[in-house]
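Data card: per-record layout.
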Amino acid sequence: MKMLLDGAWVERSQQIEVRDPQDARLIDTVPRANREDMYKAIDAAVRGAALARTMPTHQRTRILREAADNVKQRHEEFARMISREGIKTIREARKEVTRCIETLRLSAEAAHHLEGSTIAFDQMPGSERRHGYYFREPVGIIGAITPFNDPLNLVAHKVGPALAAGNAIIVKPHTATPLSALLLARACVEAGLPPGVLQVITGRGPEVGEVLIKDPRVRMISFTGGRQTGEMIQQQARLKKVGMELGSNSPVIVMPDADLELAVKCSVSGAYWAAGQNCLHVQRLFLHSSIANEFIERFLALTKAYRTGDKQDEATDMGPLINEAAALRVEKTVKEALLSGARALTGAQREGTYFMPTLLENVPDTSPLALDEIYGPVTTCFRFDTIEEALQLANAVDYGLQAGIFTRDIHTAFRAIHGLQCGGVMVNDSSDYRIDAMPFGGVKGSGIGREGVDFALQEMTEPKVVCFNLE
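The structure for this 471-residue chain is written out next.
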């Protein structure tokens, strides 16, 4: 598949192979762009940004709506591509396509609400004859670096708001899953998007990503991925806007008055969706001592019924990890925890790129499973006696994206809402719940800024003040 550079679909002599993580079968190849390609893309984006900022709102809206319609018309094609190149089952992939359509439609609507406000300059003595307002202008050129776990919708979460705000955007998709991003770009081009406003450059991070991050003409970097890479981007970006979602080690608290059937159902889904390769993955379960045994029994029953296997099979619940190296990393981390005293209640076994759905208990506080993001289908469980103890344990990591609590008591719910250090608290749902319209992001090591269409729109624009002196 060709990459989109300055309005043209181009090839390069050097190629990157895109392989199915399930069986390493070759799906397609994409150009291996070099530094010069990225400089050319930024040159084109300068022209694209000048065009985009003058594009009327009704034109931006029409393009985004038509792009959404294009994706909808090819819903199954997009879903098959997500599932083939990535880690999602076909049922998971179909849900991602549906969300992508919603993200683009929300972006089209958000373009109508990019508003400013009047300012009462006469609040300051001596300014009685001054009148004015502020409005929002596009940042200019946005560089978007996207992950493998949601190769379509997380691209849409950057492209949609960027276009709605009148920016140009260059997408550097994950090397393992570039094909879905290229399909989305084609849907936007077919909707009438002018050249240079959106480009998708396929290549390796050290070769093209660094150029995108460091070039001063790129005024914002929007990144979703690992914390270590995020910290490197922060250092290299210097004086430009940065938005980052860097993952988490999400806690879910289950109180003694919880609806256990609901809590178990939501927690299992949150633990093993996309084989745990999900920033909202339920990694730490905190169970009240009075219900812990029953919860674990029910959790294990559902987990053991989980079907792993062929991603294209409609009956499959969970697919593989993105590659064998990722599966080996998860296996190594789990083995180290077991050697340190943890106990496997189910799973803890690798089969090629698959890692079986796993639940561990007695995990030491010093284990990476307790402190860091595992990014695999591994969940740990701990017991507590008071809500204060649960909150202390939940907050004892340098992450804070989302958390969940199951309780029927409104006072307990609000105690958690105000006590949990994170960007979102899901009451009677797992940490894995999200809609595309909500502000999405975290605190501490989980990132900077917020996504979610209306909120990304604010990040991708700058306020400009206008004041008239009528003296």
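Known properties of this structure: The radius of gyration is 23 Å. The mean pLDDT is 97.

See the next section for split statistics.
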